[in-house]
Amino acid sequence: MALIVHKYGGTSMGSPERIQSVARRVAKWARAGHRMIVVPSAMSGETNRLLALAKQVSPERTTPELLRELDMIASTGEQVSVGLLAIALQAEGMAAVSYAGWQVPIATDIAYTKARITSIDDKRIRADLDAGKVVVVTGFQGVDPEGHITTLGRGGSDTSAVAVAAALKADECLIYTDVDGVYTTDPRIVADARRLKTISFEEMLEMASLGSKVLQIRSVEFAGKYRVPLRVLSSFTPWDIPIDEEARSGTLITFEEDEKMEQAVVSGIAFNRDEAKISLMGVTDKPGIAHLILGPVAEANIDVDVIIQNVSHDGRTDFSFTVHRNDYARTLELMKTAVIPHTGAAGLVGDDRICKVSIVGIGMRSHVGVASKMFAALSEEGINIQMITTSEIKTSVVIDEKYMELAVRALHKAFDLDQVPASA
Amino acid sequence: MALIVHKYGGTSMGSPERIQSVARRVAKWARAGHRMIVVPSAMSGETNRLLALAKQVSPERTTPELLRELDMIASTGEQVSVGLLAIALQAEGMAAVSYAGWQVPIATDIAYTKARITSIDDKRIRADLDAGKVVVVTGFQGVDPEGHITTLGRGGSDTSAVAVAAALKADECLIYTDVDGVYTTDPRIVADARRLKTISFEEMLEMASLGSKVLQIRSVEFAGKYRVPLRVLSSFTPWDIPIDEEARSGTLITFEEDEKMEQAVVSGIAFNRDEAKISLMGVTDKPGIAHLILGPVAEANIDVDVIIQNVSHDGRTDFSFTVHRNDYARTLELMKTAVIPHTGAAGLVGDDRICKVSIVGIGMRSHVGVASKMFAALSEEGINIQMITTSEIKTSVVIDEKYMELAVRALHKAFDLDQVPASA
What we know:
2 copies of one chain form a homodimer.
Chain A: E1 3-8, H1 16-31, E2 35-40, H2 46-57, H3 64-74, H4 76-91, E3 96-99, E4 106-108, E5 117-120, H5 123-130, E6 134-137, E7 141-143, E8 149-151, H6 156-167, E9 172-177, E10 198-200, H7 201-206, H8 208-211, H9 217-226, E11 230-234, H10 243-248, E12 251-254, E13 268-272, E14 275-284, H11 289-299, E15 304-309, E16 316-324, H12 328-343, E17 347-351, E18 354-360, H13 370-380, E19 387-391, E20 394-400, H14 404-414
Parallel strand pairs in A: 1-2, 1-9, 2-6, 3-6, 9-11, 10-12
Antiparallel strand pairs in A: 4-5, 7-8, 11-12, 13-18, 14-16, 14-17, 15-16, 18-20, 19-20
Helix pairs in contact in A: 1-4, 6-9, 11-12, 13-14
């Protein structure tokens, strides 16, 4: 008998019929002997409807006082969901009870609309589980030290589910969503992209550009911190498929290095075409030059991703970095007005038609030559590499965006990602 | 500088524009130097929408567990309202904060969907008022001793407003609604029905059949218990009418006997055509006969209103009572199966085409001949009286329903209710 947390997204909760279907699926798990906690999102469209009402009343949304009220309003979407799901479970003959975040309580800091969970009291939930009840807990929300309602930001219900699983020491947290797992890369680009049965927590974080379509990245960080086994699986399978089959479906995100996981060197190909590249040519290479260039960018609240500085020749170097495309024009302007006058750069070059392609794999730690294999595969396709960065389990290249699909397909093939790897 | 509670119904909160209008009205009062608490209802239609969702998920609504979840769901309508109103007030430049019932807290018993308020903690609200904030509190809901959300039943926001006013010792509680006050009788029946400037708490209770269209009767009882001055006034006046004019409008429900109130003998004519009459003829007149007849009715959870037992002749009496028309058929059946076999009644007569017309007035206490004047007025119109009951400040007659309008008009005229009475 395991303690299991289920999380259902807004689409799964989108109508009374779908809520009944969720209830039947949960009841199936409970009848199989599991202790069940369910964290549903608001019905699809509900959070947007509520925030639109608020915007009609007052278009501004800046002060903490206003953000507090937005949380008061937005949190009701999940409260309705938990009540409806508890009723649907009762109609299925299950004992069930719902709780809003403040009733558990799920304690957070005071950062309205983007609060972080600080602690979860497990007593109330545990007492209900002991009494044989299915416990339905609101996602997305908590309560601050002063008793004000807070919300965790968009997608926060994933984080709520993982946090509740961590607090209750659940055996597994199942995230039901509209995709059936994590893939080696985007199946819309590579037709034979393969669903991974397992992926490590660290790989999942690096796969963020893919993973963010599946899981809120904060929920993965939370799962990593508290070592909560997390499974992403489809909410579109019929509720009455055999429970053993369902329990093995999707992708398991693991934290046990020694678990029998797929031992591919590279687990997936991630990509991102939201970035733009900026290069300062012939900058005087002196101590503090990086800060001189990026300081004004940071002050303007612009995130920098890749940063490259080459070795210098004749006391001069080229300095390149990438920012989000939305910040491209603003960053170029900053270079002209606030940076070049102080650095004596010989030239400024920008390009917003680039993309970043990454190979991700925990096996890269112990295998040499992985990066060279990547560069060779790209070279064979005649793709020029503009920038390279590496981390322990990831190698990223920046290339012309027109080659993106080609590069992803070439790398997917070069690393045999269409093949199921042999178990270790 | 007074402490004032405003209560707004669902129609007043029905759209973002209307909420902005409420905010401007409240801001006008606050700028005039008053300390303001506002209790808004859910946006019109919202509670019905939420309960309809629940019904679609599970048509049954019987167990306490299910009722608990209904309260979880239904309470969100008011939570959205308070958040939106607080934002609208902030947009008007007012410091404002909203609270759900559990945050105040407004403590109730555990009777889900029809809970009663047991106490209200005034500390949090008072601290915000002291800090110069407008405090917006959810109506309709509270929290039970175990921390579960409860609701007070339909129209409960009136009661919430009065309870908050009582707890904070407010100087006046203003109920903004879609009628502009309490009338001598229904203006749809008597064209020259007159709005009362004041009405006593006891009269208001007796005028329930009129008053229930204006105020939830429990809120009047609550106001009476805690002596909260209550004013019913229109939410349809422009928000920017002069505050002095607004403060004198509507009808004030008072608790001070010695206040300068209108000293009419009769204040209003109430009527009710929801009842049906049942008579048992020739019942053996023995001790306990009333219980023998009405015991089975009470056990079937049927409310009895008027009860009449005449003096007996030859050891036999006639026993009559009225019930709600919806319970008429069931009550007749009960008489046949569970009562007549034990009472030996000679006959059973029922009539569901009756109505009850009442004259109400605190002045009846000190004036004789009021009832006779009523009977005379009806007699002049050829209206036969079927039953009579009296209380200290009310005389009611049961008549054929076809005479209802005629009777109301005749009594309105007989007691000069179209004339403004001289002040005492």
